[in-house]
Protein: VOC domain-containing protein
Organism: Sulfurospirillum tamanense
Amino acid sequence: MKVRKVCLYVVEVEKALLFFEKVLGFTRKYYSPKKDYAEIGLDTFILALASENLIPNSSLDPFSGNVCNENSLETELEIATENILMTHYASLANGAKEISPPCSNAYGETYSCIRVPGGVLVRLYCSYGFC
């Protein structure tokens, strides 16, 4: 088996798309003419950003409590970076909200958590002091 892509439903596709491109280095693969769906890539990984209007089952609501509640934990995207401080503060300067500042864990990893424009929860990390 192989994971082809991961799709995240966001409140505003364009804001999320621009953030992932500008700050986190993703490359645009596709952006729909209606601006309600985009695919971006990082190495071989494809991330799809879809408008809440495209949720296949209208009884599902991925945003109940997520976007406005910074304490909620839904899907989290982990992104490795070589310079967590630069990436974290560049994220904040470009509209992300800080959930937790950069800190170290017992395993020697440095991580932080942000909520990017569009509502996606992202954990930035750098393994074993290579930050």
The chain has a mean pLDDT of 83. The first strand starts at residue 6 and ends at 10. Helices lie at 13-22, 84-93. The chain has two helices and eight strands.
